Amino acid sequence: MAKNTISRRGFLRLLGYAGIALSSQQILSACSNRVNQPIDYEITGEPDIEVRLTAKPGTQQIFPGNSTNVWRYTGEVLKGPSDSLISLPDSFLGPVFNVKTGAHLRVHFENQLPEKSIIHWHGLHVPDSADGHPRLAVENGENYIYDFRIMDRAGTYWYHPHPHGRTGPQVYQGLAGLFLIHDDEEASLDLPSNEQDVPIVIQDRYFDKENQLVYDPSMMGMFGNQILVNGQPDYEIEFDRTAYRLRLMNGSNARIYKLAWNDGSPMHVIGTEGGLLEKPLKRDTITLAPAQRIDLWVDFGMWDPGSTIRMVSLSALTQDVEEEFTIFSARINDTEYSAQTLPETFPNHKVLSPAQAVNADDPRTFELEMGPGMRWMINGQVFDMTDVSKNEKVKLGDVEIWEFINQGTGMGGMGMGGMLQPHPMHIHGLQFKILERQVDPRNQDSYNGLKDGFIDEGWHDTVLVMPGEKVSVLMQFEDFAGLYIYHCHNLEHEDMGMMRNYRVENS
Ligand code: C2O
Ligand code: CU
Ligand code: CU
Questions:
Q1: How far from the centroid of its chain's Cα atoms is residue 478's Cα?
Q2: Which of 97, 126, 339, 476 is the most exposed place for a label (fewest CB within 10 A)?
Q3: Domains, the chain, ordered by start
């Protein structure tokens, strides 16, 4: 058994050093960077934070014996607080961004991979020039400069490559990282923070006998047989008997998880992709599709000191999994219990109602299906670098309802049993509300296995659309005109073409 355990302590230590390393000047500048006024997203002048991110091949000791060849992001803070980037110890994952709403960020991306790449800031509301659209991909030896203001509220976001046709393999090789945003509203809430704020990036990978990654996807996507948390197998974390915030992220290419505590204890969900919920939710299971994030509030004092509990993924009929498997183990330290209270409500930053939608009576529809040539398509079309169809043009400022339909009506439909697939649909550049799910009774079984774990409340950038399901979402195209994309976040489906442009046009 691999012994690559306990990295939380390492993470903390790292945070500590980062704090100590701050010179008084940096601390001063960190304070003056705080923006409390409404955000002016016009990008002028010098950035508050400037970093360099380099993507390049490397190695990582994941198992005893041979180290594993990976691709990774390495980061360097050129300007601003030194803890704007925090490395996860013993991990191939990229550094964790740690920034505040309102900050002007400049990122120098250097591509030292043997192929094209570009970085997408998943979940962030940024101008299209900073969104990492595949048309912006740069070749080996080239760089791309991102300049944008952080306009999103506090929450758990992430970043990963987005070159057309190669996103799946590049993420699989190790290119991904968390992007944490903080704001004053969140800071006023007294939520668990610092050492009690723990990232949990969940990925599955397939390794050969030499400990090397094998990338060999099917039409269903790439599935591994080994779970990694924060880049490590058999992950164990120690917790004191108090409250923690766990930021769960599904960084897998295709796997959907049905998360639960092995003893059946309920889970308290406090946040989704777009930040805190209006109020905490209590669930026995959580369905986490690729690219989705969930923040949990966990009181580890409810378990006995010295005990170990496990977060598991339960069997669900959707994918190839019959049995439950462990995501990570939590060891409860023998510390005195320090009780914390879970707030009953969180500030709700924004209201969006279906009545505001310009197309409330006639929503845009997007059929998700397998088309000719065994390719995954949206409304019968695969990705084209610049093509935008009539159904894909929206007006700046408009509120709209979009309906994703996964009825299996195409060539790969009901007749081809194995090809009914769930599709985690993601829209760039914004956060949306999930309005409604309608399910076809023929597909109740796979649906029922996961539906109790759906967290449809709050703000999202990715929604799971099960076979036989119609899901409608509500959003507003604010601030930026330009070319964005929407796609299935099963990365192999995306690379096969299940992605399209949408254009926000000035009205
Ligand atoms: Cu997480 Cu288009 O991406
Ligand atoms: Cu995205
Ligand atoms: Cu899909």
A1: 21
A2: 339
A3: 4-187 (2.60.40.420), 194-228+238-332 (2.60.40.420), 354-505 (2.60.40.420)
Cβ of residue 293 lying under 6 Å from some atom of ligand 1: no
Q: How far is the CA of 248 from the centre of ligand 1 (A)?
A: 17
Please write the tens of the pLDDT for every residue from 76-128.
999 999 999 999 999 999 999 999 999 999 999 999 999 999 999 999 999 99
Looking at ligand 1, which atom is closest to the CA of residue 122? 1
- The ligand 1 atom at the shortest distance from the C-alpha of residue 291 is 1
Alpha-carbon separation of residue 486 from 181, 336, 355, 501 (angstroms): 23, 48, 24, 6
307 CA from centroid of ligand 3 (Å): 39
Q: What is the pLDDT of residue 348?
A: 74
- Kindly report the protein residue whose alpha carbon is nearest to atom 1 of ligand 1: 122
Task: Say how many Å lie between the CA of residue 241 and the centre of ligand 1.
Answer: 37
Mean pLDDT of 370-387: 92
Total number of residues shown for the chain: 507
d(CA 400, CA 363): 7
> Cα(413)–Cα(97) distance, rounded to whole angstroms?
41
pLDDT in tens, 249-263: 999 999 999 999 999
